Amino acid sequence: MANELTKPENFFMSRFGMTENSLERVLGNALERKADYADLYFEYRSAEGLSLEESMVNHTSKSVSQGVGVRVCAEDRTGYAYSDEVTIDRMKLAAEAARAIADERGAVPAAVQVGQPVQRHRLYELQQTALDIPLDERARLLREVDEMARAYDPRIRNVMASFGAEQKIVMIVNSKGELAADVQPLCRLSVTVIAEEDGKGRQIGSHGGGGRVEWRYFFEGDRWKEYVREAARQAITNLDAVDAPAGEMVVVLGPGWPGILLHEAIGHGLEGDFNRKGVSAFSNRIGQKVASPLCTVVDDGTIANRRGSINVDDEGTPTSRTTLIEKGVLRGYLQDRLNARLMKMAPTGNGRRESFAHAPMPRMTNTFMLPGESTPGEIIKSVKHGLYAVSFGGGQVDITNGKFVFSASEAYLIEDGQVTRPVKGATLIGDGPDVLTRVSMVGNDLALDSGVGTCGKDGQSVPVGVGLPTIRVDGITVGGTSA
Fold it and tell me: Residue 448: CB partners within 8 Å, gap ≥ 6?
């Protein structure tokens, strides 16, 4: 694998007996009709997972998949076909299927010449991935997670833990002659704790993390122990939670994972496809004020070792740091090649796909708000009566208007400038663009999530990162159970 780590394109060329000439013939076949662009996406993925419940490692899995996807773009139409058998003949058949959307009229396209290497970032040059660690050692970690969580408090009744790791090798070749390749490691440790007490019911706490990191990452500073403590603490804390109040109130969002609200309620609305089609709340608003001047929001796929980072996107474009909102003013959208071309904008390195069986679309990488000048303590102290939301569970959002509903998995009352009682059953209801205009204080404590995010869109899932400093929002509707 050493050569694959330095020149992953060699992996595909040697494994499947391909040459630049054979790739050029396939792309030429895809462009036989009038089309604007074509590309080939090769993928080889090896993944392993194991999980623990009731103090036993009760499930392990291992999978290997490979395949190639062929895409043809003609104006705003996309033809896509794929095969899990990577041969020249299969690729030609896929190319013929994909080009069916193209126009038969028009001049014969110029011959494709493959060989222009794309300079990728070096964000995760790992000496050893989690897949290189013996399965017994990974299982031992899960048992230690279980032991530590149960020792935290006798009210903890069950512990569920899982560890997943994969290594994906990709290569993208397009009709512009560009060739990009990458090796993408990824791993994640997840911990869920269930606590129960007579008269107080049952509560759940969850935490975890990971990224494009080595096995030792989880042991640096006893990071895995911090995951366990946080999951256990959340579950035990929620046993004493009171019913959440209902109504419109000041809400303070904590740093880190609460950035998922920013991701869902605002980030998706800034993706190029929704804006090209005019269905986003942010469509045709570049240069306009869309948020409080305290808000600057970026998407950055170039942060080393982060879960949402990639050296090149799934179209072979190097990832970038894209400013979406700057001091309240909308500055840009997240673009893949197709939507960038149609909107006469530059690709931002945000063309992503779940696998070779899926066509790419504009997606986020690591999306977060930049820090402000207030301290977290100053923000809390400024609130006479409100809600402090520390962590979120599930949520829903309507891209066309930004309306969202999010459930808080850990939240507290703020009374007279102090964080007081934990609450349960709190949901935040509002719309993203409106929430951004109500941000009145932004903390200096920006934190990114610990590396657990997975984003779904049109049936595809990809790893992402989110982040947020502590922020004060003056007026979000809170759905609760007490008046």
Answer: 256, 259, 303, 306, 366, 368, 465, 466, 467
